[in-house]
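Moderator note: this is an archived Q&A kept for reference. The question asked for a predicted structure of one protein chain; the sequence and the answer are reproduced below.
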Amino acid sequence: MHPEAECELTYSTPYQLLVAVILSAQCTDKRVNVVTKELFSKYPTPEAILTLSQEALESEIKSCGFYHNKAKNILAATAILVDEYGGEVPRDRDSLEKLPGVGRKTANVVYAVAFGGNAIAVDTHVFRLSHRLGLSNADTPFGVEKDLMARFSEENWSHLHHLLIHHGRYICKSQSPQCAKCLLAEECPHRINHKGESPRS
């Protein structure tokens, strides 16, 4: 169903990916890509971002929502990257999670997408689908992550993350799951037969 499932954020460097993932909290990738296209054209590097005041950065990212905290965290994380890592994004999750505004999900995305690591980042789509498909009944993102890691081979973790996101974004939507289009419907414990449709079209 999703042969080309991959990260849909637009970026050129690990740093730009990190900023984009921070901006994506409670915001669509489509909106983030609109904002970062303009932002990164003017301020493509950590050093360039640090020329901005918090107010100026807030103005650049305002349409992503929660712009005050996001700007504050981006500037704080960027300052650490420049001061302690020579402007480079660290490749290990422990160091990533120490950066302001970077939780486990964000660290997993950067680790997997930018550096080719094996990780499952549990966002709202992954959390929802893991429950709907009967892959986990954990009530925390970390619990879901552990359940998925136990069920799937490590070499498949990153791809699984993108498959679940795409499935949640385009077929198994939060409010209107398109069960008639889903090839997993016959096995899904939560399939919905809309208007008498069979689970599979």
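Archived answer notes: The chain has two domains: 14-114, 124-196.
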